[in-house]
Specification:
CATH superfamily of the largest domain: HUPs
Distance between the termini: 37 Å
Number of domains: 2
CATH topology of the largest domain: Rossmann fold
Strand order of the largest sheet: 1-2-3
Radius of gyration: 20 Å
CATH class of the largest domain: Alpha Beta
Helix content: 25-40%
Number of strands: 12
């Protein structure tokens, strides 16, 4: 079963039109395991924001980090989304099938002198808060694998997040020169997500606040590549009552083992929608319809984390 509402082809070239585009949102899970409560929470926020604005909602599988991909996880993620009532537009995009696009972008940056090769390993940089620029002139080691880094010059990147408000970061001072291709030759997340969001025409990104500080790096890269910067909304990250990441407990168990309706209502409550008790006796479709009506005027609280009740 394919939950796509239609089979409209997804745009495959980046554009930078000046006209205001129709809302296009996306959910981009990594198939490194099953979806859990935190995944459902983020997906629901993205879906509600897109559908309440009569927008399109895309699904993209971020499977570039092949060593972390769990066999069968992508299939189970899509099945779970279907079971919970999500309907996506167009074909599902898999990053593993788009390597040539990332390499083209990398080459465009290299041709402008914006990148350099770095032989530093993680262990060599373990004690550094930011990349110190060891290989800016040339790799310290003349042989062996190298990563490709983007030259980052001092300067503040600032944007307004729809939930978190104004956020600014001097990328050079915070992280230094950013890795675009790792030493194992896998494309880094920051490059892949920028290329894909542009190619798919994504106008609005709703995701977890754990990626908030990564956003200025993406904006800087978008500007260098001449593509549109989406509007960002970072929802609080769900954490345990003590502030730690969700443990392997009942609340973070794989969603396919849980009843869809109660889990959805729990997520709607966590998003601040306060579903009425009678929704528990209805259907998944009715729950989505109610949530969409509430979302039109709703605002998620501006916080970075949200602790679950004990």
């Amino acid at each position: 079963m394919n939950a796509a509402k239609n089979n409209t082809a997804i745009a495959t070239t980046a554009t930078a039109e000046t006209a205001e585009p129709r809302y296009i949102g996306r959910f981009a899970p990594s198939p490194s395991g099953d979806l859990h409560l935190g995944s459902l929470y983020t997906a629901a926020a993205s879906y509600l924001d897109a559908r309440s604005r009569s927008g399109r909602w895309l699904v993209r599988l971020e499977d570039l980090d092949r060593p972390r991909v769990v066999p069968g996880a992508a299939r189970e993620i899509l099945r779970t989304l279907e079971a919970f009532g999500f309907e996506w537009d167009g074909d599902v995009v898999r990053q593993s099938e788009r390597t040539e696009r990332y390499l083209d972008a990398l080459e465009a940056l290299r041709a402008r002198g914006l990148t350099f090769e770095c032989s530093c390993s993680r262990s060599q940089l373990a004690e550094d808060d930011r990349y110190p620029g060891h290989c800016r002139a040339a790799p310290l080691k003349s042989e062996g694998p190298t990563a490709t880094r983007l030259r980052i010059e001092p300067g503040t990147i600032q944007f307004t997040d729809r939930i978190q408000g104004t956020f600014r970061q001097d990328v050079a001072a915070t992280v230094g020169d950013v890795v675009l291709r790792r030493r194992d030759q896998l494309i880094a997340y920051v490059l892949a997500v920028v290329v894909d969001d542009a190619a798919q025409g994504v106008t609005d990104v709703v995701r977890g606040a754990d990626l908030l500080d990564n956003t200025p790096r993406q904006i800087h890269l978008q500007r260098l590549l001449g593509v549109r910067t989406p509007i960002y909304s970072h929802v609080p990250v769900l954490v345990e009552p003590d502030g730690k990441k969700l443990a392997k407990s009942a609340r973070s168990a794989r969603l396919r083992d849980r009843s869809a309706l109660p889990a959805l209502l729990q997520v709607f409550a966590l998003l601040g929608l306060a579903p009425p008790p009678e929704l528990g006796g209805g259907t998944v479709s009715e729950a989505w319809g109610w949530a969409l009506r509430q979302w039109r005027e709703h605002r998620v609280a501006p916080r970075l984390t949200l602790a679950l009740p004990p």
